[in-house]
From TrEMBL:
InterPro entries: DNA/RNA_pol_sf (IPR043502), Retrovirus_Pol_polyprotein (IPR050951)
Name of the molecule in the record: Uncharacterized protein
Gene3D superfamilies the record matches: HIV Type 1 Reverse Transcriptase, subunit A, domain 1 (3.10.10.10)
Upper taxonomic lineage: Eukaryota, Metazoa, Spiralia, Lophotrochozoa, Mollusca
Organism: Pinctada imbricata
Length: 319
């Protein structure tokens, strides 16, 4: 540290800061009392002055990107799926309300408008964003485009209407025409007609847990093919898992691993990184509920290695 050299045991963890000094160093008897001078931005440790710099708190503004390609007909608006960028600190679920504002570059690129939106990130991985196309031509927006910026909002959401507009029961993939120069439309007014896309018409009977599978499988397909797949999924809906806790397993065969005369391999537990604090127990409890693992006193044992996936979730791995 600066000109100061010393040996000390360190803990390596996945954290944003390059290094954290604990009280075992700042108050260690082998050093002189530590002096922190914020006025001159220095730390005096063991009589040696170490220059420091003050970092301001990082901005809570996050990027909002589209989760798919969307086509917006002329003089129409559509509600699309978008995703708010996540960070390591978001691994622990917490109530997060964001307000989404339009990205000026997105409007300039496509010539569309994006409505300001108040969303709750706990409800789903995706958040709804309303895009308005007032031009005379159809516009296509692309996957991963930055549609706006999200900022944490400390206020609770306030419900302005007791009942949402009926036309938004299937708001994703729904498009409605925009009439310019006409009288103002009130919420619930029957004269405001919604035009459902083919995807919405064919997916009405698709079970909720198969909706995402259906949407991905029918991309670019015609109405007849979409209807056939919807009928097939509805007929065999019971063979698909609805969540992570009903995966099940076969009882036809039983798998065994022949270790021969090999000596049992038992690896000692490893310290869980601070970034994954609490995730190991959560992963074990989940696999217990799923019936994937069970309590054992086997001489064979290997510790869990937690690996972070691209979507921010944690995957437990065992050697």
């Amino acid at each position: 540290m600066g000109k100061l050299k010393f040996q000390h045991e360190l803990i390596v963890a996945e954290i944003d800061d390059e290094c954290l000094l604990g009280l075992d160093i700042l108050c260690d008897s082998q050093f002189e009392p530590t002096v922190i001078n914020l006025g001159e931005n220095i730390i005096k440790l063991n009589g040696i002055e170490i220059p420091c710099s003050l970092e301001r708190q990082r901005s809570e503004i996050r990027q909002v990107t589209l989760m798919d390609d969307y086509v917006i007909p002329a003089k129409s608006e559509i509600i699309v799926k978008a995703m708010i960028d996540q960070s390591e600190k978001d691994m622990i679920p917490a109530q997060q309300t964001y307000i989404i504002e339009a990205n000026p570059d997105f409007k300039k690129k496509y010539g569309v408008s994006v409505a300001s939106t108040l969303v709750d990130s706990r409800q789903s991985v995706s958040v709804p964003v309303r895009i308005l196309n007032l031009s005379d031509v159809t516009t296509k927006v692309s996957l991963d485009d930055s549609v706006g910026h999200a900022e944490k909002c400390g206020l609770d959401q306030i419900r302005l209407l007791r009942v949402q507009e009926n036309g938004e029961d299937h708001n994703f993939f729904n498009i409605r025409s925009v009439q310019l120069g006409g009288k103002e439309q009130n919420v619930g007014d029957d004269s405001l007609q919604w035009q459902k896309s083919e995807s919405a018409e064919c997916s009405i009977k698709v079970p909720p847990h198969l909706k995402d599978l259906y949407d991905r499988a029918t991309e670019g397909k015609n109405r007849k093919m979409k209807a056939a797949l919807a009928k097939l999924l509805e007929k065999h809906a019971d063979v698909f898992s609805e969540n992570e806790l009903d995966l099940g397993r076969t009882n036809v065969v039983e798998h065994s691993i022949n270790t021969g005369n090999s000596r049992p391999l038992r690896q000692p537990p490893r310290k869980v990184p601070l970034a994954f604090e609490g995730e190991e127990k959560k992963a074990i409890d989940t696999m217990m509920k799923q019936g994937i693992i069970q309590k054992s006193t086997s001489p064979w044992a290997s510790p869990i290695v937690l690996v972070k996936k691209k979507n921010g979730k944690v995957r437990p791995c065992i050697d």
